[in-house]
Amino acid sequence: MNRIVVKVGTNILTTANRELDLNNLRQLTHQMAQVAQSTEYELVLVSSGAIICGRQVLNITCQSIPEKQAAASVGQPLLLKEYSLFFNQQGFHVGQILLTQDGLENPERKAHALDTIQTLLAKKVIPIINENDSVATDEIQFGDNDQLACQVAQLIQADLLILLSDIDGVYTQPPSTNSDAELISTLKELSPELLTTLSSTSIGPGTGGIKSKVIAAEKAAKSGIRTVIANGRSSSIILDIIQNKPVGTTFLPS
Ligand code: ADP
User: Fold this and answer.
1) Hey, which CATH number is domain 2-251, 3.40.50.720, 3.40.1160.10, 3.30.565.10, 3.30.200.20?
2) pLDDT tens across 57-100, in order?
3) pTM to 2 decimal places
4) Which residues have a Cβ under 8 Å from the Cβ of 154 and sit 6 or more positions away?
5) 176 touches ligand 1 (CB under 6 Å)
6) Any atom of ligand 1 within 6 Å of the Cβ of 215
7) Contacts of 10 (CB under 8 A, 6+ apart)
8) Pairing of strands 41-47, 126-131
9) Which atom in ligand 1 lies closest to the alpha carbon of residue 212?
10) DSSP for 25-37?
């Protein structure tokens, strides 16, 4: 059995009007259901997007951390409702798990989280994981769930981690300002030179930028998990990655 963790970032769940992008949510859910239907794969989803859902309802700009936490608290059930609807249409139930950094550092809680995920997977339920944003701020502030996705992949000893963003992968330079930036197809060692060129800010509603994804990807690869950063707006991206097609930036496990 191959275990796959898919992380869906804020940017690909957001429309130009800064609302939840239901079309993209639907197409991603469709792909993930296709994977989970196979007896070869178990799939765990780590999803951002709660703040986007909540800010829409509360009509707030979410400048401060407490505002973001409040928006996440309102948005999380709304986001799960949409996932649940789409996955139900494909024959799956979903289970919500909210984690925090200190929870994952506590051996007992970590073991409980693993038990829950494994029990859900055994029942063919799709676990949907997010940071517990109303009590923790690590991912709201710094990571947009990239680090959390890496930790979850390590926890369940995943074979593959897919970090989906709104960009085709990691470029040699910021692609929005450098027309000669080149897509890096494979990374084995992350050089300090490349790391310094990577931006830690997002031009969209996300947080963490490409830097947080690359750091998380490298960490996962170093623990033996093949990791791919790829464009979640491409309609067959998850299936392409599973079939080893040359898409995105792959971090080879070491
Ligand atoms: P998400 O919300 O999907 O997690 P982020 O906005 O946090 O994504 O980070 C992805 C963004 O990082 C891309 O949209 C891209 O414009 C920007 N970026 C900056 N430098 C690079 C680079 N060298 N390679 C790829 N993307 C980059």
Assistant:
1) 3.40.1160.10
2) 999 988 899 999 999 999 999 999 999 999 999 999 999 999 99
3) 0.95
4) 220, 223, 225
5) yes
6) no
7) 48, 49, 51, 52, 144, 202, 204, 205, 206, 207
8) parallel
9) 7
10) HHHHHHHHHHHHH
